[in-house]
Amino acid sequence: MFKRSILAAALAASFSTPVVAASASDKELTAIREQIRLMKDAYEARLQALEQRVKQAEATAATAVASAQAAPAAPAQALAQQAVAAPAAAAAPAASNLFNPNISLILGGTMARLSEDPQQYRLQGFRPSGGEVGPGKRGFSLGESELTLAANIDPRFSGQLTFALSGEDTVGVEEAFIQTRGLSNGLNLRAGRFLSSVGYLNGQHAHTWDFVDAPLSYQAFFGGQYKADGVQAKWLAPTDKFIELGMEVSSGASFPGKERNKNGAGAKSVFAHIGDDIGASSSYRAGLSYLRTGAEDASGADNPLAFHGKSSMWIADAIYKWAPNGNATKTNFKLQGEYFRRKENGSLDIADAGVGAYRSSQSGWYLQGVYQFMPSWRAGLRYDRLASGSRELGGDLTLASAPILEAYSPSRSSVMFDYSPSEFSRLRLQLARDKSRPGVVDNQIFLQYIMSLGTHAAHAF
C-alpha cells in the first residue's frame, strides 16, 4: 500500500506539471527516478522489519494463546493458565527483564496461642514423617519466607529458583527447575526440584493457602508437601473443556519415601485433571492422582519407626468456585476438598524392639469453604479427619512397642477471617480445635501476616 501511494503521488505530480516535465533535462529526470527508487526501497525495508517483529511476537505468545483465549477473569482461562503457563517469568512479557530475573520475596510471621504443649504433638495412629507436622511453637515466630528468582532463559526454556528461609535461620531449596515454553501439541516438560502436581493443594506455595497450616492429611501423608526431584511431563488436550494429563518420575526422597542409594527412579506418579465453566458465574476442577514410592530407612534417635518397603497412594480432589458473572473482586465463594488413601507394605524397624513385617491401609480427608463477603474481607471453615485404618505388625513387633500406631482417628475444626488491604498483603485470624491425640483437645489461636514484595506470578486456579 505504501509503495502504491508513493508511485501514485509521483505519477500525479509528473502528469500535473507538464511544463516542468517537458523542460526537465534528462539529468533531472534521472534524479527524480532515483529518489523514487530510494523511497520504495526504504519503505520495503520498513515493511519487512515490521513483518519480522510480528512473527517474533506471535512466537513468544504461542503458549499463552494455546492455553487461554478468554479474558483473564474467566474461570476456565485460569484453569488453562495453570496447565501450560510457565512459571513466574515465563508468563511475563519478554521486555526489559529478558536477561534479568524477576525477583519476589514473601514475608510471613505468626503469633500462636496453644492450650497444649506443641512439643508433645503427634498424629496418633500414623508413623512420624519428620516433616512439618503440628501447629508450630507458641508465641511469636517468624514464618517461612520465600525468595524466588524466575526468568525466560530463551524462546524455548524458562527457569525458577525458590529459596525457603525458616525462622530457625536455615535456608533450603524449595524449588529449582527449568521448564519448556509451549512445546507443540499441548506438551510441556519440567526438570529439577518442584512441588508435585499430585492432589490440588500440594502444588501451591504455603502463602497461597486459605488457612495458616496444611490440612492434617498433608501432614500425615506428606509431612507437609511432597517435593519431587526429577522430571514432569504435562499434556493439555486441545478441547474447549479443560483436560490435563501428567506424569512424574523422581528420586522418591520425600516422605512417604526415603532417599535410596540406587540408580533410577525411586517414585512415580500420574495424575489427571478436568474442569470447565458452569454458566457465567461458576467453574470447577476435579482430579485423580496416584503416587507410588519406596523407602529404605534405618531406625535411630531421630527415627524410632523406620519403614522399609513400598508405599502407594490415591488422591481425589475437587474445587468449585463461584463469582457473580465471573467477577471475583467483590464477592466470591470457593469450596475445596481432597481424599487420600495410602497403603504400605514392607517391614518396620522399631528402636529397641526389632524388625518385623508391616502392612497398613490408612485414609484421610478435608473439606473447606471460603467466602469473600465484601472486598478485601473473607471468612472460611475447614474440617479435617484421618482414619488410622488397619495396621498389621509381624515378628516380635506389637502395638505396645509402638504406641503411636495404636488406632485413632485424629480430627480438627478450624475457622478463619482474613483481611487483604491489597493483592500484596494479608492479615489473618484463625481459631482451631485440634484432636490429634486421644483424650487431648488443643485449642489454638493464630494471628498471621503475609506480605509480598516484588514481581510475583499469578496464582493457579
What distinguishing features does this structure have?
461 residues, alpha+beta, Porin, 7 helices
Descriptive account of the structure:
This protein is α+β, with helices and mostly antiparallel strands and 461 residues long. It folds into two domains: 59 residues; 381 residues, Porin (Beta Barrel), CATH 2.40.160.10. The protein has seven helices and 17 strands. The chain has a 16-stranded antiparallel beta barrel. A hairpin with a 2-residue loop joins strand 16 and strand 17. Helix 1 runs antiparallel to helix 3.
Number of domains: 2
Q: In percent terms, what proportion of residues is strand?
A: over 45%
CATH class of the largest domain, please? Mainly Beta
Gyration radius, in Å: 30 Å
Query: How is the main sheet built?
Result: 16 strands, antiparallel, barrel
**Average of the residue pLDDT scores:** 83
**Total E-strand runs:** 17
Oligomeric state: single chain
Low-confidence stretches: 1-24, 63-75, 80-96
Helix content: 10-25%
What is the CATH T-level topology of the largest domain? Porin
User: What's the CATH H-level homologous superfamily of the largest domain?
Assistant: Porin
User: What is the element string, with H for helices and E for strands?
Assistant: HHHHHHEEEEEEHEEEEEEEEEEE
How many helix segments?
7
How far from one another are the termini? 46 Å
> What would the principal axes of the Cα set say about the shape?
elongated
The structural class is alpha+beta
Strand order of the largest sheet: 1-3-4-5-6-7-8-9-10-11-12-13-14-15-16-17
CATH architectural designation of the largest domain: Beta Barrel
